[in-house]
């Protein structure tokens, strides 16, 4: 049966090379094709018949029927459909038009550009739409001819001619509509790809002002919603104008049939149009409000997803979940308003044919023109039934076009935003030669982040950097160090002066930018692998030992934003990326702050001084020990270069630099004084001691595993490693038949079974009443006792009686959709906020984002619409078939097998279509992730001048996604064409039976049968469309349901195990044989740690990268649950209590400070627990009072996304302000002062000691002075405690800690000795 069905369902199959499945392996010249594509789509090789019948997609359908498809099975696009070609056309036209446009007439620039790029290929689409419209409009005339034929008893030959002409018209209708739809979607796909690429390209060149106006979340919305919506615009546009044309032509047919009696019928049509105008305006208003609310929710969601670790550490889940719920509530309100008008418009457009027909018939009676006979009545009814399609879908089309216009305006605004001056960054070799010995030159530079304001970020900057110089930039927090770096990179708007850079740049940002992918991908960043250079770079950046310790070497995958790496590892990876680039100028923005002192010394010596010895290096640092080797030091304060010169030249009394050096000397002196017997030790002896001790310091550096060498691996071995036990897994998707499970899930979650049942019953009742009204006309028309008035009155009464049912059907469908939207969003939002941190570490943010954005949008709008329409069309199909069978029962002989064949064809199609839609769901997430990563690292990308590499990768992602959509669209049209063919056979059979058996049928019943038969095709097509649409969009239910079932972390509150409100009263922490592993079967990270931290003590935790410091903190906050062992705080096991009870009693300043969009107040006190006086007191203590007092809005001063308008040091100080407000008994400092200068560090250490004098303070630090005055020091190595004692005792022995101190002192004392001598010389001179 299945082979027979396959053959039947592939009518017009073209048995040529297209029918064979050829999985060709791309040659070397095809490497730029879509990755994973087995072959190019067969459309390019298809002949005329294969193209006409869409048989070229048969190989994909056959493969999908034989096995579940995977991405590698999807053929690549034809070259003319690829995104690069589409974007080039768009970019060319945009460029030529933008030169002629100004700010006053640029509002519709994108619209004009798209019109010019798309009009040629849409001429064929328009021709197909016109042919289809004419075919549909003339069908009622055939009904008129058939009824006249039966009435006048014409010869059979004439009847057969009518049947033949009807067959031609029906097949022309099918072919023209299918190719209109397919080519409109194909053209829309090209337009979508071009717009998505344009958005990404704009993102790469967006200025700092543009980035302020358009956050990362907003840009992702432009891609996920606006670009995808624009891709469907052409389909809706052609549908709209062709339906309008169909409406007017149908009115013309009515005039032809009934003459002037049709004039009264125009009145209700005009009333409907007039009533639709306020509906359209209201819909546009609500649509715009809905999209704005949706954009704000998704922006906030993206911010939450990117900073979920901070939210969990601070126990702010309830606060941010409430915020997201509130934003969703606003979005839901506008969604409900937008959907609320649907029941009214549905009644208006479903009942308008009945009203119009009744008015036309009454007009005919009054005018007494054309006789009211069966031919006239059913021709009018058939025409009006054809008009019901325009009346129903024109509002839908206008609604979508309104949405598209809103999207178009948003995209137009974004694409016209200020751009980064690309030309200034592209320095030619001629400029390099002309520059002589200069690398960087700034003359009279004044810069401001907001050019329209009078506030300057940098003032009177004059700087000249010569080739090969090492330039250090130092200064207090907020002095303008990073702004100066941005001025060199041209990332900050220039008010006056000139900036010239001669040579290529490699930039290392202060906040590490890490891509999802392997370590090797991050280091190479598009460059070709040179094994010798690669090994040299990883060794110079102290990465070789780290790489050897990873299970997959440099092919180990890095999680989202490098979340499975320590801060030091992330910093060294991006440093290695810069060094491997082999640029002329290296700009390092505080690159040593996240690494320990030994690693910092190695980087300074092996990387900066050795590997980059012939390069120009400009580095920002708070490590004064690295300043003595600088050729020039720039001292920043208040946005100015206050001092400039070598180390010895800057030590004048009273200067900013002298204060910084004094603070550093004080720290070193304190360190030296704490080291008994070593006060007079010379630097050289310390160096010797360090060199001797360095080898035996416990670390993972003794790991003897070799680095995996990629050039020694085959491609298959490399793929095997990448497919192994990596952190980020391939996105899960359902495979195979899911049956009714997604629909049942939809009804179960929404509790909508009763609503759906009511929808079905309401629609059946409506269809039956409509059929009864038509039957009345068919039977009563020949009854002389029934007057025309009664005939029309009863017909109108029965029809109007059906209106409440169609209203109820639409209303219940809307209620079902709204109920499901609320239930599913509540479920996924709750699930995400309760998910453990491991889920966010292993799941790319783009994967989560697609669930809460495009999938949620599909569930909001598409699922209820498709479900309601499917119910309607099924009811109509059953009633239509029943009416036809009641008149010509032999038609069942053909219709039943045709229906069975159509069902089989649908099953054959669904096997492929289901997997295509599921795959399509997984191809969107990488696009979102790529856009998000690019947005966060755009400054680095521009500095490296590697935009083309990222652009090329993005094009591949776009083409992969487009290829799946392309074949999914083609499969839908393939199915509908075959189902239409089967239904055409049914219609032609009914017509043939009427011709061959005329004497047994009354003209009224003939008209009734044919009027329903002619609509059978459109009903079947619509039903198939709705079935396909529902099959596609119901996958969103599957995908959202996946993330509603995430295994949650332990509960926030455990009743019966809640600690006292005063807990912890002391702050005593006990670790008992604590063992931690991040995943089952992964190695232990903490290997049985046992120790006691006495209440009220300050404990410093030190150790090499990967020793377990961060894991220990994660265990304390229960971001990861112990495999065994216990953690007791004041005698209570923290694993027995709720997470909220635990985390609210602990305070932490994380290594990577996090700020949220809002105000200074909302970032310091997000829960609103503290008064303004308390907040100002905390601000003063964290050294930010002067800065914030000078801002116009004070505590309400804005904080942009991720605190981009504040320096990293200021962000850390604001995080310190948070803990000063909370004043918990236990405080954790995770490199809390890494990004601030030594002077501010000394002040803050004093404040922390004073404010938390009775608290337990755990400090993780790379600066030895930060932990040297701790009461206890814990040394971790390879997940074990190797030392835990008082610092003075550890210093007296040959301990690991003493060696670490000697290491720091050996580096710092040189600078201290040199600065002392220089200071003394300067004092004597004075």
TrEMBL record:
Residue segments, region Disordered? 672-701
The alphabetical list of record keywords is:
ATP-binding, Membrane, Nucleotide-binding, Repeat, Translocase, Transmembrane, Transmembrane helix, Transport
Q: Which GO terms describe its cellular component?
A: membrane
Where does this polypeptide localize?
Membrane
Entry's InterPro entries?
AAA+_ATPase (IPR003593), ABC1_TM_dom (IPR011527), ABC1_TM_sf (IPR036640), ABC_transporter-like_ATP-bd (IPR003439), ABC_transporter-like_CS (IPR017871), ABC_transporter_C-like (IPR050173), ABCC_6TM_D1 (IPR044746), ABCC_6TM_D2 (IPR044726)
TM regions (residue ranges): 123-147, 159-176, 236-255, 261-280, 347-366, 754-778, 790-812
Q: Where is the ABC transmembrane type-1 domain?
A: 123-403, 759-997
Could you tell me what reaction this enzyme catalyses?
Answer: ATP + H2O + xenobioticSide 1 = ADP + phosphate + xenobioticSide 2
- Boundaries of every ABC transporter domain copy: 442-663, 1069-1303
Please tell me whether the keyword Ion transport is annotated for this protein: no
Q: How does it sit in the membrane?
A: Multi-pass membrane protein
- SMART domains for the chain: AAA
As recorded in UniProt, its EC number(s) are 7.6.2.2
What are the recorded GO MF terms, alphabetically? ABC-type xenobiotic transporter activity; ATP binding; ATP hydrolysis activity
Q: Please name the top-level EC class of this enzyme.
A: translocase
Q: What's this protein's family per the entry?
A: Belongs to the ABC transporter superfamily. ABCC family. Conjugate transporter (TC 3.A.1.208) subfamily.
Q: What is this protein called?
A: ABC-type xenobiotic transporter
